[in-house]
Input
Amino acid sequence: MMGETSAVGSDLRDENRRLEAIIRQLSEERWSLPTPAEGWTIAHQIGHLHWTDRMSLLAIDEPEEFRLVGEQHDREPNHFVDKEAIAAAAVKPSDLLHHWVATRDVLATRLEELDPKTAIPWFGPPMRPLSMLTARLMETWAHGRDITDTLQITQQPTSALRHIAHLGVRTRNFSFQLRGLQVPTPEVYVELTGPNGEQWSWGPPEAPDAVCGPAEDFCLLVTQRRHRDDLNLKAVGSTAKIWLTIAQAFAGKATPGRPPAQMSASPDSGSVSACS
Output
């Protein structure tokens, strides 16, 4: 467990540095560029990452204070996150960048040092250190993707996608529950192709339902950064097909995700044997 925690922590630091390198090159004016997240600029994206890192540290070090924040969140679940992002985006870009970098590095270290069985309070069920590290990696990658899309920057995917994909698989039932749907009983086999051609899989290969395709596409789907129709993912079976329309790896209210692009890939293309 400790080895896995260190691996995710290392990937989180790398992902943060990749995003930081891009942000440091921006003029102050470009922080105001609108991103694919409706109503959010680049400043909102970084502000949200910083706020979530701060809340994570608060949950670890001052759980009673965090409980009060959680109660406020519960009173206005549909607007709380946006309000905090707006407040953070109002900070001078250079100051926001400084605070984000300092806080995120402290958080990664604190999570690596905790007992792996520690239950950290959160906006929903408590999280273990490994789960919180994975969630921070997922969010950093997803919000970073909004920023690179805005700036029309293409980055090479890394093996860190495996952690995000794992979270996407683990939250399958959550995606149904979040929408008040009955969780299907059939197992789903997931087989993804990593950035270097490696095969990652979850679930029994003999399962009646399967999802196959590039790991990056699957991660874009579960973080709702691309519409299902714009991704090269193949689904077999009714459970798998429904799941890919509602997949959501992040906490909070159920969201509709991004609209499809004008030019869409075939959603069931691919040639992986489990889905052929």
